[in-house]
Design brief:
Layout lengths: L1 E2 L21 H5 L6 E9 L24 E10 L3 E10 L1 E2 L2 E5 L10 H8 L4 E5 L17 H27 L5 E7 L1 H12 L6 E5 L5 H13 L15 H12 L27 H5 L10 H10 L3 E2 L5 E3 L10 H4 L9 H10 L13 H10 L11 H6 L2 E7 L8 H14 L10 E6 L24 H4 L16 H11 L5 E7 L8 E8 L4 E4 L11 E4 L15 H27 L1
Parallel strand pairs: 1-5, 6-7, 6-8, 8-9, 9-12, 12-13
Antiparallel strand pairs: 2-3, 3-4, 4-7, 10-11, 14-15, 16-17
Amino acid sequence: MAISSGLLPSFGAVLSASVPLNCSISAIQSVLPVGADVDFVQTVAVNSTFEVPPENIAFPISPVGLPSLCAVSAWVQAPGNTSFGFGLFLPGDWNGRFLAVGNAGFAGGINWLEMGTQVRYGFATMSTDTGHSSNSTDGRWAYKQPEVINNWGYRALHGSVVTAKQITEAFYAQKPTYSYYSGCSTGGRQGFKEAQMFPDDFDGIVAGAPSWYTKHLQTWVIRYWLNNVPNTDAHHIPPELFPVIGAEALRQCDPQDGLTDSIISDPYNCNFRPEALLCGVETVASNSTAATCLTSSQIDTVKKIYSDWVEWDQRLIYPHVAPGSEASWGVWLLNSSVAPSTYGTDYVKYFLGLGPDWSPWSLNDSIVKFAEKDDPGNASVDTDLSAFQKKGGKLISFHGFADSLVPSAGTTYFYDQVDKNLKPQGIKTSDFFRVFMVPGMGHCGGTTPSFNASWYFAGGFQASLIGPTVHSVPGFSDAKHDILLALTNWVENGTAPDSVIATKWTNDTEHTTVLRQRPICRYPEQAKYTGSGDPNQADSWECRLPWEEGSGPLQNPGSVGSSVFHCSHILRILLVVIISSYSMMIL
């Protein structure tokens, strides 16, 4: 088997004396531990397609245009008379490294499509089926099946990684020099869980939009829905008004970061005033259902949507969605008067075991406390990552501010809690863990036409959104633009990323003409326009802390508003000084 570094940093390969395996069932079976068996082994020729088995309902799309490789499917026995399976792509032109990819939602199935993306780098690439068969929104398999839930929560990924590494080492007659992970959403949670629970599995992890706080997030989905139902009540906001709210959020929040460019750079610090959308007296008098304004009751609903879920003592249950996330409200959470997303209801019915007849209308604090105590599958992630840090692991997380499925503030909250745990131990969190928040990006990837934000940087699940044979960043395959290559550069060369440049093409699926690029900065830094140059060019921006000198508002270069802003700002300062001086005189 050839060994190639491809786009990755090179290393000195040291081969063992063992003989590499051939791509056959008997060869792979010979190296499996007791309790593990092969489903199938097949050779995939260069530029051909791996046909996903029809029973894989979670990830049915077949990867095309693959490099030559050996495809393996195997399963492993697990406690409680359960089992889990995994797939493994072993490329002929191997870069000497191992990489596992993540899953989605409640899905039970091997993510062959994402494996196809990562194997193009040259990784030996693996995915687990998490121990059951279902699509991502179906949680019925979990009912009264605690060991199956444990497989989904943590056991299947770890067990699959251990076994797949054994196969990889035997196949190439060499241990992988480095091991990596890439996932988003539930895949992001899986990455965090691996860092917390099995720190030796991976040298580096990219975890996007992590749904890490499972015991709170799934019930938050229901609470979020309850804000806007029933549909017959005066406070209900119909889906056709979501774009109206989104347009107003963009109008108000876009300029507050100092540059009007159709992107909300700092949505959680936007002073958004939804009252600007209040219907006028003419609309109220005519009892109109105009799709351009909101009633007072609907304004109250907007404020609830943009409010954290906290208990009476202000303990945070889950943070709210950000202004700018409105485009996906109707798709995920607020489009039905009958029931909310099954990401919420199936969790309570089948993971917590309250049964199929449980009604989301009966959500209360006792259910939240039960979820906290039970935490089915041990799926939620503890914020003490000291073991992963001591092992030398590196962790990168990213999250789109426009994500309404998993509110992005949950990721910065996680980082802050990790920092709070580790700093008293003398550990500098940013030395091993960095978070990148992405303005204008939705759940894991993509952006809306109203934003046209730079969003692509080869994160988990992103490549399949722009083309069936894409990997890395077309035209920009380096550690500055590719978050996975940034991770490998950090792990293998010690170069920690302070930013990753995100790309937006004029047509993302053609990805030939770049519309704009912008640095995505490591939290808590933000990208600030330098005041000169093309705002669509990455070098016109720099990463600064929000409170740093020079991080104040900036206007478009050469615009009329810039001089007006400058003069009015000076007048406001002078006015404050005069009033303050006068107040002190009369005290």
